[in-house]
Amino acid sequence: MTNRFPIILGLTLLALWSPRLSAEELRAIGVLAFQGPAEAFNRWRPTADYLSEKIEGITFEIRAYDLKSLRSAVEDNQIDFVLTNPGQYVRLEHFFGVSRLLTLQIDHGSHPHNEFGAVIFTRRDREDIQTLADLEGKTFGIVSAAAFGGFQMAYREIRQAGVDLLKNTQQLKRYGFPQDAIVEAVRTGEVDAGTVRTGVIEKLIASGAIGLNELKVLNPQGFSPGFDLLRSTRLYPEWPLAKLRNTPNDLSKQVAQALLNLPSDHPAAVGARINGWTIPLSYQRVHALLRELHLTPYEIRPLSFGDTLAVYRNEILFALIILMTLLVTTAIIYRANRRLRVSQIQIAEHRDTLERRVAERTVALSEANRALSEDIQQRRRIEARLERSRQALQDLYEISVAQQVSHPERLQRLLVLGRTYLDAKTASLFTGTPPDTIATDSLTEPKLSKPIQAEIRAVAERAVPGSSELTESTGHSGVRIITIPVKTAIDEAGSIVFYDVERVLETEDREIIYLMSEFIASEMIQQAIEDENARHQSQLSHVTRVSTLGEMTSGLAHEINQPLTQALNYVNGTLRRLHANRRDPGEIENGLKQVAASIGRATEIIQHLRHLLQTGTPEKHPFDINVAIRNIARLCGAEIRQKRIALTLTLGEDPIWITADRIQIEQVILNLLRNASDATPDSGAIEIRSRVDQDVFRLEIQDSGPGFQTDDLQQLFEPFYSTKDSGMGLGLSICRSITRAHNGTLQAITSSDGATFILELPLSIRNG
Question: pTM of the prediction?
Fold first, then answer.
């Protein structure tokens, strides 16, 4: 009996403390009745029955509330779970610590939505209301100012459009739940516009309560992926199901699991007009709306002393501790200062003595520092002069070694360097007697007035011929003028005149200017030599062309004689028809046309010969090189046909434009074609091919001759080297010189099938 007593006592206590053993436990779900308590109860009662069925030992019931009473029920712990709109959920979360379990999925349109918004609308015949800004001064139907979907969503968008409905609360007409009353008020003209949550208008249209074209949506957002309902606002997460702080976590997990497994066709889902439940969404968008509108819990209100103390309790305590610490520290410092005063008096006496000594030492150091500063300044001036001279020498070197720079441009760069180095206004180079300007600083020359130009020329005329010294003079307006002679190895000499010089010349400056004049003299000599070489090259090219055409005399005579003979035959035939009284105008006209054509061919050959025999300064112009190739082939035609050589032209139909001296390029093609003809045996073949390779024209002349030896290829373009017994050895050398003068290349390759010469020249811009 003694052993059974603890067991009986334990069972008795367990029965007293465990209601589940004696009766089912009752749990309440509070629901916001936005369309009335009866509708909310009927809508959500099947869900409570479903949970009671799925969770053993628990009976769930639905309790319907409005916004104010639902807050009170949560505050007093009258319910275990709450289902409300997102705005009230955020407030309940902030004040009472409720936490969301699931988010609702509403079955609207073609698929379920776990987000919703608000529709701002008016009657379609209201022409005075087209945008949200037109709502200024208009009456506006809402559920209430605290309704999230029935006002706050729309208020955010309207406020951003510049209309604040809360400034004039008489504009707002509150209709409460259900929201159908707002639609009816707008439709009948009781209010100018209104707002309801998404899906309400579609439901009324589907039920036939309103017509499809009676209303129009303001600020329409259009359909987005996953949301196909009319809306005027941003989207926010749907209603959450949340648990109160005291609701057991195990029970909350069972409820969440059961609702997540709720089928969409279950009577509970059908009765609630939902598609089911999903995991809880983020409600930061709701926080952002309340924060922007300064709504609870983000309203702006003055803080009382008690509020301040409650909010900043730790900060105030920390400030008090710091204040006490400062007071104690101040007392300690004060006592220390009293002890230090005596020491300060002693220190002041020593300081006065030290100051006297420092002053004496400072005077001595100032004198030394002044001398050192002067020495540093002198060194800096010398370094600056040396750096200036070094930079000038560097510039002289870069100008002298610059590639692809013409002599006039190089002279101009040297004059610009001299003008810059001397800080002069302009620089001019004169040669001859009387002096003539051959180069100027073109950057300043156009800006000079005629009197200044005349004064500079007069200074150049006064320069002493043969002098080698730099001279300085003063102009009419008091400016400094420096003249330095330029001596060359040729008869022609000159001088450089720098006008309005500001720099005071040091010894190294004079040496730099002398060196610059020597560079200019060297450049003038080089230009004279190259001009003379160019004249010799032109004369030699002309002699070569005359010699080549002289060798082709018999062939050219045949080419000219053949069209003239044809013309004579056509004239004799026409005369015989006239003597025989066969005066058919058509035949006579045809004969005269043939005569004109034959004479035209002869004239064309003669004009091209005159063109090749012309002399003068080479001039570059754009021309179609395929036309030049055909002309040269026609000139060499008789000579090639005499050897029964098959000449093939592969040129293409489109013109190929290059910018060059046409006579010189035709001379190169003529020499290469005649060399190919000389190397090709009787009954052989020559092929001429032209094409464009990127921005380069490429001409290939291939013969069927014996080709070249390797040693011949290395010396082929050397002057006076020839593989022919009677050759002078100048043709290919001149061809390569002409090609290089046109920025092109000329090369030869050989094989067992013969030799091929390849000419490459840059294309003209005209090809583009």
Answer: 0.41
